[in-house]
């Protein structure tokens, strides 16, 4: 799988475009800057945007190609991001952040529940989780995402995973994605904003 992503990032100028995810952008624009964790951050579109808005960014991905592209882009934009190479299944909450952003982080069920638990541990009291992912209904669309139903999400399982947080909003909606070559067209997504009280 790592080889697949390295190849995809290497063969395309950008995979998901240069603009931040719109739901993530709205969160960043409405909240005062702090520290933010961005797992599976790919080429850095959300990390660079957050850094430009004054956030202190910690990102990771298991693709070294994606990391190199993200750091190069951050340097070109004259911002700093901290970006590690890390497998998501090995992530442990070693420090706490004012926010965590999970943007299209799709995982097998066994890995997902443990990872989500670690994400909760990595959010400071008062801190936020902002999440956008493909819903199970995404299988009817060809705008991106896993073709494995078990790796797509529904609101009950997400609410269960993050039940220890105060869920401010959790909604499923159909949107039109315009995120680079691989997220294009009508899509079924879940959007969640939650806070650790």
Automatic annotation (TrEMBL):
Residue ranges of every copy of the Methyltransferase domain listed in the record: 40-127
Pfam families: Methyltransf_25 (PF13649)
Keyword Methyltransferase: yes
GO biological process: methylation
A molecular-function term among this protein's GO annotations: methyltransferase activity
Cited SUPFAM superfamilies: S-adenosyl-L-methionine-dependent methyltransferases
Presence of the UniProt keyword Transferase in the record: yes
Keywords noted in UniProt: Methyltransferase, Transferase
Name the UniProt record assigns to this protein: Methyltransferase
